[in-house]
User: What shape does this take?
Amino acid sequence: MPRGKPIDAEWLRERYPMMTDINELLDEHEEKFGWRPSKTAVYTKANKLRIRKKPIQGRHKRCERPVYWCKEPEMEAWMLKHDHGQRVDSLSDEFRERFGFGLTRNQINLFRASHGTQVRQDGTRRGGRTRVPVGTERRGKDGYVVVKVREEADVAMSKDNWMLKHVHVWEQANGRKLPKGYLVMFADKNRENFDPDNLVAVSRKLIGVMNAIGYEWHDRESLMTVVAMAKIRVARNRAEASMRRVCPCCGKKFDNLNRLEHGGSIHSTVCEECGKAGRKPPNDSGGRRRKYDHDKMRELHARGYKNEQIADMLGCSAPIVSNAINHELEKRKAKRWQRTS
Ligand SMILES: [Zn+2]
Assistant: This one.
């Protein structure tokens, strides 16, 4: 909250952990302090103060009485007649006056959702008649087109009757649901091209590798090539990591498959225990001692010296410096995609 009043920390410490519903908390704040903070402001402040919500059992606000609307025609009829989008607490009070017990925000929201009478933010009603037909398309916030695929949401109050259109088209064309962990990509990168030929399902993991190896694609064929190359890269890594090695520090046999899973170096020549203990193989530089100090080069590079200047300082040629530094960048890049693959 860049401007405006700060939220009282004491109050938040006391009330936030017990919160069952952010809107109720905001109502409570408004009642007590006379102004209503934004949800984001509350979450941000709680996060800053490191206040956590209590486990749900401890703070769950139980309704005074469960209501199965379909089994309570009198209450249902009363609600349809008297719920005209007023605030939840006043509706609850009116309900209490008539039936002797109040309703929670959840009960009211669920009633409204299942009766198509949700209230918009601006207080206007959504009303059953203004619903759009199945097949209606809209542009979502992130620029992807979404499409209405069912009249009703399976989960009340959710929008699971709307789907990303490209995912929907892919599922229709392939006759199955998109597997978990997969995304549908537009092969030509045009988010308007819903030709099933342009839609390719790729696992999220693989997309990380595809981006890391740095090849571009512009249509289905080139995308499939990059997918294939990424798969080869993954397989090569797996093969490399599964090589049995002998740890030069402790003599134990090991492989780097665990490191592959958890983003360590698959080229490591010491076992994990020795690596964690910081043990280095004896004669690390045996046979490939470097003529120039690469660490020094990188340090100078990081401090902003030009390659030529570094070459002068260390008495070598500029290409040696640029090679050493590029090598380091490559290594870092490789690490990054190992982590994502
Ligand atoms: Zn070892």
User: Anything to note?
Assistant: The radius of gyration is 30 Å.
